[in-house]
Design goal:
heterodimer, A: mainly beta, four-stranded antiparallel sheet, B: mainly beta, seven-stranded mixed sheet, 0% helix
Chain lengths: 123, 107
């Protein structure tokens, strides 16, 4: 089955760290750019960042709100994408989704999403 | 950053109605626009990409149009399962951004 499954969410204090993982299955993970998107409770979608594939040197992009605090990594041998979150703030509280990017043939979209994992930053 | 403004933010409609949601970009994004549907407690699902291409498996009552700075999502005849929140997304440049969402409710 083609799917993405996030894990690692939970409750963390402000200033703390947390590492999320996304396990991919049913498709050739190494071919794709992979992204993280978050959604604060009752709010809209916010893009967090991207890790490109090997063909594009595994480079990364980040939203300004997380740059320098969050790091996206991937392990193609394990079909896994991680999000290391440091110096967490209350405003980082959100459901975090892993998403597969489709950038082929001039089209661009996020065509596969995980169900999300909730991160709560609170004292 | 490219800002996307959706209108309306809230829409009340009946089964069988035709509805249109607009997404305006603060600068030109060619056709690098996607539309998603999200139901409560669920992940977003891709409906339309490249402004007007229907994602595989999505019912043909959904359609998209536009290029540059103005885009629309149209549902030709609302079905009960269509009531949800809809988001546009631009993938023209970084940071990737989403519209604020349009919540579609049953009248």
């Amino acid at each position: 089955e083609v799917q993405l499954v996030e894990s690692g969410g939970g409750l963390v204090q402000p200033g703390g760290s947390l590492r999320l993982s996304c396990a991919a299955s049913g498709f050739t993970f190494s071919d794709h750019y992979m992204d993280w998107v978050r959604q604060a409770p009752g709010k809209g979608l916010e893009w967090v960042g991207r890790r490109r594939n090997r063909a594009n040197s595994y480079t990364a992009e980040y939203a300004a709100s997380v740059k320098g605090r969050f790091t996206i990594s991937r392990d193609d041998s394990k079909n896994s994408l991680d999000l290391q979150m440091n110096s967490l703030k209350i405003e980082d509280t959100a459901v975090y989704f892993c998403a597969r990017a489709n950038i082929g043939g001039g089209s661009r979209s996020f065509d596969l999403w995980g169900r999300g994992t909730l991160v709560t930053v609170s004292s | 950053d490219i800002q996307l403004t959706q209108s309306p933010s809230f829409l009340s409609a009946s089964v069988g109605d035709r509805v249109t949601i607009t997404c305006r970009a603060s600068q030109g994004i060619s056709s690098y626009l996607a539309w998603y549907q999200q139901k409560p407690g669920k992940a977003p699902e891709l409906l339309i990409y490249s402004a007007s291409t229907l994602q595989s498996g999505v019912p043909s009552r959904f359609s998209g149009s536009g290029s540059g700075t103005e885009f629309t999502l149209t549902i030709s005849s609302l079905q009960p399962e269509d009531f949800a929140t809809f988001y546009c997304q631009q993938l023209s440049s970084y940071p990737i951004t989403f519209g604020q969402g349009t919540r579609l409710e049953i009248k």
